[in-house]
Amino acid sequence: MGTNKTLSLSSILLIPVFLAIVSSGLPTISGKGFSIREATVRDLQLAFKHNKLTSRQLVEFYLEEIHRLNPVLHGVIEVNPDALAQADQADQERRTKAPRSLAGLHGIPIVLKDNIATKDKLNTTSGSFALLGSVVPRDAGVVARLRKAGAIILGKTSLSEWSYYRSTSPPYSWSARGDQGKNPYTLGNPCGSSSGSAISVAANMAALSLGSETDASILCPSSKNSVVGIKPTVGLTSRAGVVPISPRQDSIGPICRTVSDAVSVLEAIAGIDIHDNATIEASNYIPKGGYAQFLRIDGLRGKRLGIVRDFYNLLHLSPGSEIASKKTFLQHLNTLRQRGAILVDNLKFGNITELYFTDFGEHVALGAEFKLSLNAYLKELIVSPVRSLEDVIEFNKNNPVLEKIEYGQDLMLQAQATNGIGKAEKAALVNLERLTKNGFVKLMTKNKLDALVTPGDITARILAIGGFPGIIVPAGYSKDGPFGICFGGLKGSEPKLIEIAYGFEQATKIRKPPPF
Question: 10 Å Cβ neighbour count for 33?
Fold first, then answer.
């Protein structure tokens, strides 16, 4: 492992080799007239093919943008000191027409949420100094697949510390290592916990990114930062090597600027991993021929889309709710209809009151699951300053300056007090299953829906507790910032959701880069 394991964030971002690059004044547009900013994977691959761009130039561009923007936005925790070497290797493979150069993400830089393990010189800390210097046994399953697809690991992104499972006190997107992440459109709340991943691609500090979600952590920051987020069916993508909260709810997915880019990443990371048993069963959902075939401009035609008006009245409960314009969403419903979708309107969601206004059991289950799964993750590390949740709690107590102890660690303390999956936890799990069956599943099956359409991330908890997929797409801007529209479906419905999301995106083309 590299010596940078003990360096501070500022030291890592100011490694001399990068100083030479970022001070060189690389233009937004390369010497041969290709614009990198806002370029899609397809754009970049065509530029490679026609010798308008090299992977080195691409990495240099993003390193410069990180140097320029990250001191304000705090979207990136750490850059990979080997990123340029990976870029040079990709360029060499392309010149020699190596078989690997045909891989879907070959030579494309991607940033990863800092809870996703990489067996390289990068740290994996979940935003906490407690894991700084730890050594992972292997790449996370999704990282191994990204490398196989030819992607360049550019760095790690900031997040709400411990994926917002340390305390309920800190603001979204704060971590001890990453400081306070900021929305590039408003310089305000970017939402969490995969905030840095959304910030980075929204602000063009990276081509692609990966996030993770237990409950809203992909969908909310994607909505708030005007990017596309795919929260896959639980188990469709491996969670092995990712700092966990709940094996029952955790999901790893792409956060990108376009639906097609997000699908390119999903295509690369979906599949069986022997270190995550859930991927074996979920692999049955992967369509023959992959996901790109569902990027259909007429994907909305004939799709049955459910509309539950009550969700529009609950927007005040969402972190991004103040920006959501009911008028805009009503206009989008007309667009969906005009593009051939069948809107099944004025539906009633059976247990909406219980899900949004009672303590329905999710946090009871998550506390015990967090302790069990985190302890297992920490024990597997080759080197680590902490080996259990109890160690992490003690570390936080003993490092008040580094950890801003005033933010507390109430969620960790509650989790530590649990003793496995006991009577209370079992009752909570039974209730979650009941709510899922009598709520979302009943709504979808009774009305033969392809997707439920909702504003922002308001239905994230419903998708979370049932392990269901969702795709969020930019839907508009207001004085408070961007907001998205979400399409959620039953397990394995990613193909239909991709058709719907891509059809909507191509019909509206709402996303615009931040003015920052």
Answer: 8
Pull the structure tokens for residue 459: 């239905």
Q: Which residues of 67-106 are buried (b: 16+ CB within 10 A; e: fewer)?
A: bebbeebbbbbbbbbebbebbebbbebbeeeeeebebbbb
Using DSSP's 3-state secondary structure scheme, residue 113 falls into: strand
Annotated active-site positions, please?
A: 113, 193, 217
Token pair recorded at residue 474 = 């930019």
Eight-state DSSP code of residue 80 = -
The domain limits of the chain are: 1-357+437-516, 362-425
Q: Report how far Cα 30 is from the mean position of its chain's Cα atoms.
A: 29
Residues 6 or more apart in contact with residue 6 via CB below 8 angstroms:
132, 133
The DSSP 8-state label assigned to residue 381 in this structure reads -
pTM tops 0.90: yes
DSSP notation for 270-315: BS-BTTBTHHHHHGGGSPTT-SGGG--TTTTTT-EEEE-GGGGGGG
d(CA 110, CA 501): 22
Q: For the domain bounded by 1-357+437-516, which CATH number is listed?
A: 3.90.1300.10
Secondary-structure percent of the chain, ordered helix, strand, coil, rounded to 5: 45, 15, 40
Q: What is the pLDDT along the chain (516 residues), one digit of tens a residue?
A: 433 333 334 333 433 333 333 333 333 444 446 799 999 999 999 999 999 999 999 999 999 999 999 999 999 999 999 999 999 999 999 999 999 999 999 999 999 999 999 999 999 999 999 999 999 999 999 999 999 999 999 999 999 999 999 999 999 999 999 999 999 999 999 999 999 999 999 999 999 999 999 999 999 999 999 999 999 999 999 999 999 999 999 999 999 999 999 999 999 999 999 999 999 999 999 999 999 999 999 999 999 999 999 998 887 777 666 555 677 888 999 999 999 999 999 999 989 999 999 999 999 999 999 999 999 999 999 999 999 999 999 999 988 655 455 788 999 999 999 999 999 999 999 999 999 999 999 999 999 999 999 999 999 999 999 999 999 999 999 888 999 999 999 999 999 999 999 999 999 999 999 997
